[in-house]
Amino acid sequence: MLSLYVHIPFCRERCRYCDFFLVTRLDHVDRFFTALAEETRSKAELLKGERIGAIHFGGGTPSLVPVWRLSGWLSQVAGIAGMDDETEITLEANPEDIDNTRLDHLRDAGVNRLSIGVQSFTDRKLRALGRAHTAADSLRTVSMAMERFGSVAVDLMCGAEGEGPDEWEGDLRMTHSLRPQHVSVYMLTLEEKTRLWRDVCRGTVELPGEDEQSAMYRAARIALTGAGYRHYEVSNYALDGFHSRYNLSSWKREPYLGFGPSAHSFMVSGGEETRFSNVGSLIRYLDDPLAAVDFREVLTREQRFDEEVFLSLRINRGLPVGFLRSGRSTGDDRLDDALAGFLEKGWIRIDEEVVTLTGEGFLFADLVAAELIHG
Ligand code: SF4
């Protein structure tokens, strides 16, 4: 089973905190799809005979581009690889792009899961994040999508300038009342060279501190698990059976193939695991989509071990202590000390020699992983 990711690198404008690879000029959309079709033809050998479990249109803003372009690409893939009604086809959408007609067209094109970049249901917070939509757009879009799609995901963000617990709990309450099948909760991170980063460096903006952000993360966990959502990954919650198949397969280290500038791939063949990524330049991609791959590495035994620990903790798959002992280069005593320290802090539990994170431990998943790998 193979998953596919398509990076649609266009946004109307860049949000204040965003450092993703994208352009804000929309005049290259047609050329982009021509290049995408060419890249897909060039990867036909990797697609042939495969059954496609999930397709994810990410970006950027996939809801900006013409729907017929998306359905054209889906038909091209269906002509090479195996797709059926079970294939999860997700499209990331921004509320300002969506109306009933567009939703109907997306559904007719085969999209069966809509992932909406809501971030908040308050105008103040959306302005603080530099988002182009309003609270009314958030509400309207989620409601319309819930009427048309059996699987709707809502992205929320906490930790915006001036945000306090009441505003955040309002966002959680509204989400809960709309009851989408999936909710992602991201803590705002300050990325270098963004507009927000410059404002924080200049001292014109102050963001909530780490403790306040952690409190918001905990509040989300309490509210969402209390409302019946399963916390299945550090930032993700789902009603039963509605986890993101695409994301879960990449966290489980199953193969996926990326298309478009800056897209990453992970393929497994003949016992070898290879990661590769496309060039992070739209102009170079458009000029020669067949030379899109500009980085490739075959994973070493150490890299496989590191990824297995890091990703298994994120989805709380459970790590056998024996596996940790076998993969580390440092001694068992240091591992025992690290595990004892995390147990004392209440970040992990160990049942029958298998390590899992506690709810509190999810907050420190990266730190725990780093220590279990290298500590
Ligand atoms: S819409 Fe998403 S991808 Fe586009 S600039 Fe905003 S955060 Fe970044």
List keywords for this structure.
375 residues, alpha/beta, TIM Barrel, Arc Repressor Mutant, subunit A, 2 domains, nine-stranded mixed beta sheet, three-stranded antiparallel beta sheet, 15 strands, 22% strand, binds iron/sulfur cluster
SSE arrangement:
Elements: E1 2-8, H1 29-42, H2 44-47, E2 52-59, H3 67-78, E3 88-93, H4 100-108, E4 113-119, H5 123-129, H6 135-148, E5 152-158, H7 165-178, E6 182-187, H8 195-202, H9 210-226, E7 230-233, E8 236-238, H10 245-251, E9 256-259, E10 264-269, E11 272-278, H11 282-287, E12 293-298, H12 301-314, E13 319-320, H13 321-327, H14 332-345, E14 348-351, E15 354-357, H15 365-374
Parallel strand pairs: 1-2, 1-9, 2-3, 3-4, 4-5, 5-6
Antiparallel strand pairs: 6-8, 7-8, 10-11, 11-12, 13-15, 14-15
The protein binds iron/sulfur cluster.
**What percentage of residues falls in helices of 4 or more residues?**
40-55%
Question: How far apart are the termini?
Answer: 35 Å
Note poorly predicted spans: none
Q: Strand tally, please?
A: 15
Specify the CATH architecture of the largest domain: Alpha-Beta Barrel
CATH superfamily of the largest domain: Aldolase class I
Q: Give the radius of gyration.
A: 21 Å
Shape by Cα distribution: globular
Instruction: Give the CATH topology of the largest domain.
Output: TIM Barrel
Q: Which small compounds were modeled alongside the protein?
A: iron/sulfur cluster
**Main β sheet profile:** 9 strands, mixed
What is the strand arrangement across the widest sheet?
A: 7-8-6-5-4-3-2-1-9
Amount of beta strand = 15-25%
Number of helices: 15
Helix/strand-derived category reads alpha/beta
Mean pLDDT: 95
How many separate domains make up the residues? Answer: 2
Order of helices and strands: EHHEHEHEHHEHEHHEEHEEEHEHEHHEEH
Briefly, what CATH class of the largest domain? Alpha Beta
